[in-house]
From TrEMBL:
Name listed for the protein in its UniProt record: H(+)-transporting two-sector ATPase
Membrane topology: Peripheral membrane protein
Xref: Pfam families: ATP-synt_ab_N
Residue span, ATPase F1/V1/A1 complex alpha/beta subunit N-terminal domain: 20-92
Gene Ontology MF terms in the entry: ATP binding; proton-transporting ATP synthase activity, rotational mechanism
GO BP, one annotated term: proton motive force-driven mitochondrial ATP synthesis
Keywords of this entry: ATP synthesis, ATP-binding, CF(1), Chloroplast, Hydrogen ion transport, Ion transport, Membrane, Nucleotide-binding, Plastid, Translocase, Transport
Signal peptide boundaries: none
Keyword Membrane recorded: yes
Lineage of the species this protein comes from: Eukaryota, Viridiplantae, Streptophyta, Embryophyta, Tracheophyta
Similarity annotation: Belongs to the ATPase alpha/beta chains family.
Organism: Curcuma comosa
Amino acid sequence: MRINPTPSSPAVSTQNLGRIAQIIGPVLDVVFPPGKMPNIYNALVVKGRDTVGQQINVTCEVQQLLGNNRIRAVAMSATDGLTRGMEVIDTGAPLS
């Protein structure tokens, strides 16, 4: 099964970027700039490379607004290779 943000949504905005603050299993806490918090159920995308250079592309769903510009999201695939500080993109749309 492949999980993607809603295809009818506009192109993924790179202006609403957050950073991973904590990873516990499939759960990510992400910090966003003030005033840029994603909505609950929005799809988030983590793209980058792990420590051995392999491509990472993990889609997450916002589950909770924690306050202090933090959200809690659940990953839809393995979180192996994710590290604190990695960039997270808010797609502005729910999963489909």
